[in-house]
Design brief:
Layout lengths: L21 E6 L2 E6 L20 E2 L5 E5 L6 E5 L4 E5 L11 E6 L5 E6 L4 E6 L4 E6 L10 E2 L5 E5 L6 E5 L5 E4 L4 E2 L3 E3 L6 E10 L3 E10 L4 E7 L13 E4 L5 E5 L2 E2 L5 E9 L4 E9 L4 E5 L4 E5 L12 E6 L4 E7 L6 E6 L6 E6 L4 E6 L4 E7 L7 E7 L2 E6 L4 E6 L4 E7 L6 E5 L2 E14 L5 E11 L5 E3 L2 E7 L5 E8 L4 E7 L10 E2 L5 E6 L6 E7 L5 E7 L1 H4 L9 E4 L4 E5 L3 E6 L5 E6 H6 L11 E6 L5 E6 L4 E6 L4 E8 L7 E5 L5 E6 L4 E6 L5 E6 L3
Antiparallel strand pairs: 1-2, 3-4, 4-5, 5-6, 7-8, 8-9, 9-10, 11-12, 12-13, 13-14, 15-17, 16-17, 17-18, 18-19, 20-21, 21-23, 22-23, 23-24, 25-26, 26-27, 27-28, 29-30, 30-31, 31-32, 33-34, 34-35, 35-36, 37-38, 38-39, 40-41, 41-42, 42-43, 44-45, 45-46, 46-47, 48-49, 49-50, 50-51, 52-53, 53-54, ...
């Protein structure tokens, strides 16, 4: 599709983003308004999701440069203080860059960063901190780019046709090398003969059969000097090596690869190749695959990172220390939290230390190699409060957080923070009923006066439960009791007037959404279960009898978009359609027949648009425009707003970056249906969106 993409990227406003707003604190005389303090974390634009193979460190070991995949940002980190000291404006390279690999020139004055989203390479002057050139080169996903030993050339394989681009660092000119039937993967130039390149790539044999090869390429006459086919288990066809490293005396080469399995876990091998015999010496499967690696030639050790993300991941991946002499992983260096490991570099000034970046938790860490201890860690976003839910009650939104034992009161019609009240505990399940807040966990439910935070009543219930959200309908309350973070155990129904347990319904031990969805007339309620890559099951209950009316199963292979862990819904009562969020779809359910009548698939729409790189997955908010001509869907993974035209039946090419980061996320609509709010758990703020225009009104910072 060649449609010109207009992307409404709203850059997170810094220094006074909520200008004119006041913060309320209580003293002896009551609530007192004071100006909102300037958030220090917004001095520099924070990035999200460090780029694959994107970590570069200056030769003196003092400065790190980190581009990002899910934000158009590039952070400069002082490694002595482990603080972000600057950010570089990368907008000249476009929007939705989806940055990937990076390499620093030998003198440290130029930084080359590949951008998969905009299909270009940006050249950054690190002294002026400006993009000085943008080269129209399409980079290869997750594959490192390299620089020659003398610093005169940068080598970058391309995803477009398997070509290789050679960039002259003196003037940023470049040439393209394309050989029919030859596909370049990562390359390393020979230090003894700059005309020769070591390559882990592929050949295409008639009739279109891809085979992996290790070969030596001569760039002076564009010929292959030497080659050997690699067995499928060494490097599978259609799989690119992530990085290639050649030792200084050019006797050994090292590379690794990774594929992501159905359970969102990495798998792949680390390979040692003898350059004299031109044979594979070792090909060792690495737990969680080879996302990236770094080699210490003096100790003959390699440090390998991998990938295991999603709901089933332990979030405690190690750094694997591989001994080249014995061809074994000899040590696991524990780092936590960690699941989507992105890049790893040994300190060029002190090989006793290494640095690695982590995407799911948005950080860089420093590890002491001899002791295996993490000695420093820097998160690129602020998550001291972690708001995870907005409970709507009348005209007010009550913001619940994981780390602050306070409930923040937000006027939903104006977007003003009114006050905060003390919470009886952190976390737990929350809801609103007849003018009061309710909070429950363990064997206790509290009724709390919303205006003052005073506990009105404390109910001891007949069971222990661990809910996330309390949903009220009529005089009943429903809560999902979770066994672990996402795995449900029971659906509990209470009499809301006295919190007597009316019914306990066993649920499949599967991931369930974080709330029960109630119909506008409170006659039905819905729960959804399933994973992002599995079958979605939506169960419909009769609210009066508490019996199941219908069960809707949506096979993953049919729509390929799974369930959302943060389900939200909006009801078109005129056309009798429920719009329910899924993993990467909005499901349409007939409100009368309780049958699936369609799905609005974001991943199909945006996957087919050139340049869309930020994933429209983990949908956790859906809202109509006041005229009901548009439907807005919020995807947490891209922290972006997607717009569906209900009249013309298509997704807009305009995408709104919401300027906040979410892991746990929630969304509500104002009573006047003018505004949409989403809680950003990983950036301690709330984004307010105008539902007429789809544009951000403001970002509301929360303070402890």
């Amino acid at each position: 599709m060649k449609t010109k993409i207009l992307i409404g990227l709203i850059i997170l406003i810094v220094l006074g983003v909520v200008g004119g707003m006041f913060w309320y604190q209580k003293d002896k005389t009551g609530w007192v308004a004071i100006p909102t303090p300037t958030p220090t974390t917004e001095k520099y634009f924070p990035g999200w999701l460090p780029a694959q193979s994107g970590l570069t460190i200056s030769s003196d070991g003092k400065t790190a440069y980190i581009p990002f995949e899910l934000d158009d940002a590039l952070s400069v980190v002082d490694l002595s203080t482990f603080t972000v000291t600057d950010s570089i404006d990368v907008s000249p390279a476009g929007i939705m860059l989806s940055s990937s690999a990076a390499v620093l020139s030998l003198d440290g004055k130029k930084l080359y960063v590949s951008n998969e989203g905009t299909k270009n390479v940006m050249v950054i002057n690190t002294e002026t901190k400006r993009v000085e050139k943008v080269l129209p080169i399409k980079p290869l996903h997750a594959t490192a780019i390299t620089i020659s030993k003398d610093g005169s050339k940068v080598y970058l394989p391309s995803s477009e046709d398997g070509a290789l681009y050679v960039i002259n660092t003196s003037d940023n000119s470049y040439r393209r090398i394309f050989i029919p039937g030859v596909i370049f993967g990562p390359v390393v130039p020979s230090s003894s003969n700059p005309d020769l390149l070591y390559v882990a790539g592929m050949f295409v044999k008639p009739p279109g059969i891809f085979q992996s090869y290790f070969y030596i390429f001569n760039v002076s006459n564009n010929t292959i000097v030497r080659s050997v086919r690699l067995a499928n288990e060494v490097l599978p066809p259609h799989t690119y090596a992530r990085r290639l490293i050649v030792n200084p005396n050019e006797t050994m080469a090292y590379f690794g690869w990774m594929e992501v399995t159905g359970d969102l876990r990495g798998a792949g091998n680390f390979v040692v190749f003898d350059l004299n015999t031109f044979k594979v010496l070792a090909s060792v499967p690495i737990e969680n695959g080879v996302s990236d690696f770094a080699v210490n030639e003096k100790t003959s050790k390699t440090y390998i990172i991998g990938f295991w993300s999603g709901g089933g991941a332990p979030q405690k991946l190690s750094i694997q220390e591989y001994d080249i002499a014995t061809s074994k992983v000899v040590r696991s260096i524990p780092v936590s939290p960690s699941s989507d490991q992105r890049a790893i570099v040994i300190d060029p000034a002190d090989a006793n230390y290494l640095y690695m970046t982590e995407a799911d938790f948005n950080l860089i860490r420093k590890v002491d190699i001899p002791t295996g201890k993490e000695v420093a860690k820097l998160q690129f976003n602020k998550a001291d409060i972690q708001p995870y839910a907005i409970i709507r009650g009348d005209d007010m939104g009550y913001v619940i957080s994981r780390l602050a034992q306070r409930v923040y009161k937000l006027d939903l019609n104006s977007g003003q923070l009114i006050a905060s009240i003390k919470s009886p505990f952190q976390g737990g399940g929350w809801g609103f009923y007849q003018g009061n807040l309710y909070a429950g966990a363990g064997n206790t439910i509290y009724a709390i006066r919303a205006s003052t935070g005073k506990v009105i009543k404390k109910y001891s219930i007949a069971t222990e439960f661990s809910p996330i959200t309390l949903s009220f309908f009529g005089d009943k309350m429903a809560a999902i009791d979770y066994e672990t973070a996402q795995i449900a155990r029971r659906l509990l129904i209470f009499d809301a007037r006295n919190m007597t347990l009316l019914k306990s319904i066993e649920l499949p031990r599967e991931p369930h959404g974080d709330k029960v969805i109630v119909s506008p007339d409170s006659s039905k309620f819905y729960i959804s279960r399933g994973s992002m890559v599995g079958t979605t099951v939506i169960t419909v209950f009769d609210a009066s009898t508490l019996k199941i009316i219908n069960t809707i199963e949506i096979p993953y292979l049919q729509l390929r978009h799974g369930a959302s862990y943060f389900p939200e819904a909006n009801f078109d009562e005129v056309n009798r359609i429920l719009y329910l969020t899924g993993g990467a779809s909005v499901y349409k359910i007939d409100m009368d027949t309780d049958k699936l009548i369609g799905a609005l698939n974001l991943i199909d729409a945006y996957g087919g648009l050139s340049g869309i790189r930020w994933s429209p997955t983990a949908i956790c908010g859906v809202a109509f425009s006041p005229s009901k001509e548009k439907l807005f869907a919020f995807g947490a993974d891209a922290h972006s707003l997607f717009i569906y035209d209900l009249i013309k039946s298509f997704w807009s090419t305009k995408i709104i970056n919401l300027g906040g980061y979410s892991r746990d996320c929630d969304a509500v609509i104002s009573p006047n249906r003018q505004y949409f709010y989403t809680a950003n758990s990983q950036s301690d703020n709330i984004t307010m969106v105008d539902l007429t225009s789809g544009e951000i009104v403001k970002i509301i910072e929360l303070q402890k």
